[in-house]
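Protein details
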Amino acid sequence: MSSNTLMAEYPVSVTHLDKVLWPEQGITKAEYIHYMIAMSEVMVRHYQQRLLTVVRYPHGIHQQSFYQKNIPAGAPEWMETYPVWSDDSKREIHYILANNRATMIWLANQAAMELHLSFSKIDNLDRPTNIAFDLDPTVQSVDRAGFRKASRAALLLKEALDDLRLPSYPKTSGATGLQVFVPIASGYSFADTRQITQFLGQYLTKKAPELITVERLKKDRGDKVYFDFLQHHRSKTLAGPYTPRAVPSSAVSAPLAWEEVEEGVLPELFTIRTMPKRVEKHGDLFAPMCSPGVEIGEIINFIRNHPLG
């Protein structure tokens, strides 16, 4: 195939549709575009008005890739962006906003195969809409032991969040780890939320020192699960829900039910080919993240007054 034009909110030209992006699965750019068409309504709900960083793999997952924040030259005029000053590059970066299906299709045609989101929306970049806990296994072994350890850590985290009466929603990273999200009410800063992530990181390392670590240096983590409380920051991102990942299985970042974590599901069960049917059957398990969040002021005050020794 050479090129075609797909209609969404705006016409999108798509090219090289027979290019293979996930060789092990034989998934072409055409199939990826169809995934985006099928999933765009659900995905836009979570992505809209957030700064988007993408990882592009022009020639597939095993070839050269690059991160892209600034909208590239030649992008359609209708593409929505938001400027943010970068102290590192001393210029404004015009982030793409994935606010509609047309943008999702265009990103797929660009072989933007990983989509990473900011924790806040553009109406107030200093105020996160959620708290995110990133659980990353240090040992990413072929026998899946690393992911199973991350699942055990996530269930311990859920117990602590339940004790704090905080609702929590897990999802796979799509690669090797698990992430747990808590939707929060507006008005809290990243400094506020980091008090909670750091407190729980310290608490869980005391509760399960054989399983969880907050050690930043990978060489000092052993085979433990890294509890990354520093990831929750204005300048950081995490893989967005339902984004594909550049892994041989074509796994996507999959929202889960806690029962599935308990049962021992594995990330490769949730792929470009299986996720649309899963959402059709079970709905969007991450939908609560779009509802008004919970107040965390009392918890922050408690942590300030009861630091862990």
The chain has a mean pLDDT of 93.
